[in-house]
Write a structure and sequence with these properties.
The structure holds 2 protein chains of 2 kinds. Chain A is mainly alpha-helical. Chain A contains 15 helices and 2 strands. In chain A, strand 1 and strand 2 form a beta hairpin. The longest helix of chain A is centred in the first third of the chain and has 32 residues. In chain A, about 40% of the residues are buried. The longest helix of chain B is centred in the first third of the chain and has 39 residues. Chain B is flat. The chains are: A mainly alpha, B mainly alpha. At the A-B interface, helix 1, helix 4, helix 5, helix 6 and helix 10 of A face helix 1, helix 3, helix 4, helix 5 and helix 7 of B.
């Protein structure tokens, strides 16, 4: 690197100087998207053509016999629509419940005075160092023993075991220490004078939470929604162990099951595309909040 | 000057609107935290305690007889199991390679993208695409790419003008783990690039300008301005990559099921295999505990080391 000050470079020189950096950035961009492009393109091709195109650039181009045959075949072979619906329901319910439950707790922890609040916050944050895999297997054993109250006709009856239900895929992931922490951090930045003003007007604590603090916390809600939705949509290990029933199966376990049926690669790519593109579309539409949310998990260290 | 007027805090307890309001505040707060606390108790505290308790019993997932205490039997069995040692070794190798490579590449990407030239946002978004894609989908797509006559080998052929032929990556014991490592770094590097980027943005621009005026070249500026400025980020990146690496499961379960010849089996894979496939909850709990000790030790050591150096 030259250390002598250079005169202001002309436009051509500037372009030339920046060329290597741009080239590198572009090549890397190709490295990061080629498998996804390949998946997308191959999902429209018959198997023979996928294999024929492997040796050249056509593998990444929508050329040749393109059709939706792979997609229709997926729906013929497995209840893919049902899997999609299951994942949508499970993710959406967890996101909504998670926002409510964790923000309520964070509100009480950050804005109200009661004995034990500091200790509880410290305990909640301490749980972050324990990875899910540490207690996933005992949790399987435990949910298999948990009772549930069910209505049979007009009679309430206890049933044992939560395996093969929606609730076993939702409830363990509703309360989330990191979401509580994020809401707590954000609520600190909402001025407490607003609470007092509202109290003067006769608002109760719940009213302050619902009408003042939550409406001002859009970014925190978005972050928690994204950080809850992604792992729920992508969840694999947990439903693999607790769901056998095809009617309750989410998409990621569904694709593994479909994959093991040993069907055609074109169909596998079609299924993969179906469960990936909605998330990618969401990501591209809200990429700034996605990236900022995920980067915000960087402050927890 | 002293005053005889009672101060606000000295009011006798149990009387007045103030105390009633306090009590209401307390009760409301308890009501607000209780759903989260209850759920954390049932789905976090109890299973963590169970992990410790069940590891010393004969518990099975479904069993006609109740579990009984067996002392250290699960642990003695575990430490006599060669497959478990293989899984410890594979996990350690995976982490030892992924941590420096992924952290380094992520920092490189962050520096490459963090320019005033424009397009920062575009490239950042593109590099981030694998991070938001499911690991199951990525594993399946890469299984196809890694086939003997797959895209990766075609690419190797083309780039070396036919001099090198790639192996059957996932079916060869010597290349299966490296193939999984490469794919995992490819998937995760965008995440840590973003973390590094947010760290880079906390370094004041005038520090760089001052260094440039003092005649520091790019490398000197990186060493003396950027690197020290990334201290907190560094610790975080190291700890998160390591813990993520130790959790390796999905890729292995989808792509190789631990094979060929146990060359890709991992600690979490063994725990799931024991606890779910073979329904030996007690044995799986013992493996989970070893995993937890590993995670805890690694994060403590890293925290200590990164603190020591600075």
């Amino acid at each position: 690197m030259a250390t002598t000050p250079t005169p202001a470079p002309g436009p051509l020189r500037r372009t030339l100087r920046r060329a290597p950096g741009h080239l590198l950035r572009t090549v890397l961009a190709l490295v990061f998207v080629f498998p996804i492009v390949f998946m997308l393109i191959s999902s429209f091709k018959p198997d023979q053509q996928i294999f024929a195109d492997l040796g050249n650039v056509k593998a990444f181009l929508p050329v040749g016999q393109l059709s939706l045959d792979n997609y229709t075949a997926v729906f013929d072979r497995v209840p893919a629509g049902r899997f999609l619906l299951n994942s949508i329901v499970i993710s959406a319910v967890t996101v909504v419940l998670g926002i409510v439950v964790n923000s309520l707790a964070a509100f009480a922890l950050s804005r109200m005075r009661w004995p034990g609040r500091r200790l509880l916050l410290a305990l909640v944050i301490a749980t972050l160092i324990v990875p899910f895999e540490t207690f996933a297997l005992p949790l399987v054993w435990w949910v298999n023993k948990l009772p549930w109250l069910e209505l049979h006709g007009f009679q309430l009856a206890f049933t044992e075991g939560w395996l093969d239900t929606y609730r076993v895929q939702i409830l363990p992931f509703v309360a989330n220490a990191f979401s509580v922490f994020l809401f707590h951090q954000y609520f600190q930045s909402v001025p407490k004078e607003l609470d007092e003003a509202a109290r003067m007007d006769g608002a109760g604590w719940f009213g302050i939470y619902r009408r003042i603090v939550m409406p001002l916390s859009g970014p925190a809600v978005a972050t928690v929604a994204i950080l809850t939705f992604l792992p729920m949509w992508n969840s694999y290990l947990w439903p693999l162990m607790v769901v056998q029933d095809e009617n309750l199966r989410p998409v990621m376990v569904g694709i593994q099951y479909f994959f093991q049926l040993n069907v055609s690669w074109g169909q596998i790519m079609a299924y993969s595309t179906m469960i990936t593109v909605p998330v990618l579309a969401l990501f591209l539409a809200f990429q700034r909040s996605f990236i900022n949310s995920i980067a915000s998990s960087g402050v927890k260290g | 000057m002293t005053t005889l007027l009672p101060r606000a805090g000295a009011r006798p307890p149990g009387r007045g609107p103030r105390t009633a309001a306090r009590r209401r505040e307390r009760l409301t707060a308890l009501g607000m935290v209780s759903p989260a606390v209850l759920l954390l108790l049932v789905f976090f505290v109890v299973p963590v305690v169970l992990a410790f308790a069940l590891a010393f019993t004969s518990a099975r997932l479904i069993s006609p007889t109740p579990a009984h205490f067996v002392g250290l039997r699960n642990f003695t069995l575990l430490f006599q199991d060669p497959v478990f040692f293989r899984s410890l070794l594979n996990t350690a190798v995976f982490a030892a390679v992924v941590v420096p490579v992924q952290a380094g590449l992520a920092l490189g990407l962050a520096l490459l993208v963090n320019t005033k030239v424009g397009g920062t946002n575009f490239f950042r978004t593109v590099y981030f695409v694998p991070v938001v894609t499911s690991m199951v989908v990525i594993s399946i797509v890469w299984m196809f790419l890694y086939q003997k006559t797959g895209l990766v080998n075609h690419l190797i052929d083309t780039l070396t003008l036919g001099h090198l032929h790639g192996p059957d990556w996932l079916n060869d014991p010597s290349t299966a783990l490296p193939a999984i490592i490469f794919m995992s770094v490819w998937q995760g590097v965008g995440f840590h690039m973003v973390i590094w980027l947010s760290g880079l943005q906390t370094i004041p621009a005038d520090l760089h300008e001052a260094a440039a005026i003092d005649g520091a070249d790019r490398w000197a500026r990186f060493r003396h301005v950027t690197w020290p400025g990334l201290r907190a980020t560094r610790t975080f990146v190291l700890i998160t990559i390591t813990i993520d690496a130790l959790r390796l499961f999905t890729q292995v379960n989808v792509m190789t099921q631990g094979g060929p010849l146990d060359s890709t089996t991992t600690v979490v894979y063994q725990a799931v295999h024991a606890g779910y496939t073979q329904q030996q909850t007690a044995y799986a709990s013992a493996i989970s505990l070893v995993f937890f000790v590993l995670v805890l030790a690694v994060s403590l050591i890293q925290r200590f080391l990164t603190r020591e150096k600075d």
